[in-house]
From TrEMBL:
Name of the molecule in the record: Tektin
Similarity field: Belongs to the tektin family.
Record Pfam families: Tektin
Compartmental location: Cytoplasm, Cytoskeleton, Cilium axoneme
Chief localisation class: cytoplasm
This protein's UniProt keywords: Cell projection, Cilium, Cytoplasm, Flagellum
Organism expressing this protein natively: Pararge aegeria aegeria
GO CC, any one term: nucleus
Any one GO BP annotation for this protein: cilium assembly
C-alpha cells in the first residue's frame, strides 16, 4: 500500500510538471490568435494560417484539459489510498494493543494453574468448555 502511494505521488508530481509545461504554449497560442483576430477589418483573413491557429488553440486546450483531468483523478486516488492507509494503521495499532492485552492476561493467569497443565487444558479452563468436549 505504501509503495502504491509513493508511485501515485510520483505520478502526481510528473502530471503537475506537465501541466506547468503547458502554460507557456497555451499563452503563446492565445496571444497569436488574439493578435490575429484583432486586426483591422481589411486585414482579417480566414486563410489556412488562421485555421491552423484555431486548430492549434483547440489542441493545446484539449491536451491541457486532459492533463488537468488526469491530475484530478490521480489526486483523488492518492487521497483515497492515503485515507485507507491511515485506517489500516489505526486498525493495526488497535490489534497490537489487543494482542498485548491478551499476552499480559495470559501471563497473569499462568500462576492460577498447576505446573503440569498444558496450554490446551488452560484454554479449556478459560473458556469453560470442559463439559462440551468429548474426551476419549
Amino acid at each position: 500500500l505504501e509503495a502504491n502511494i509513493q508511485k501515485v505521488d510520483r505520478e502526481i508530481e510528473s502530471l503537475r510538471a506537465a501541466v506547468a509545461d503547458k502554460i507557456n504554449p497555451t499563452k503563446l497560442v492565445e496571444t497569436r490568435l488574439e493578435t490575429r483576430t484583432r486586426r483591422p477589418v481589411l486585414e482579417r483573413v480566414q486563410d489556412k494560417t488562421m485555421g491552423g491557429l484555431i486548430e492549434e488553440y483547440e489542441r493545446v486546450h484539449t491536451s491541457s484539459n486532459m492533463l488537468e483531468k488526469k491530475l484530478q483523478e490521480a489526486l483523488t486516488t492518492y487521497h483515497g489510498m492515503y485515507n485507507h492507509h491511515q485506517r489500516v494503521k489505526k486498525d493495526l495499532e488497535y490489534k497490537n494493543q489487543a494482542l498485548e492485552t491478551d499476552r499480559r492476561l495470559m501471563e497473569i493467569r499462568k500462576p492460577l494453574h498447576k505446573e503440569d497443565d498444558t496450554e490446551f487444558k488452560r484454554n479449556v479452563g478459560y473458556c469453560h468448555m470442559a463439559d462440551e468436549l468429548v474426551t476419549d
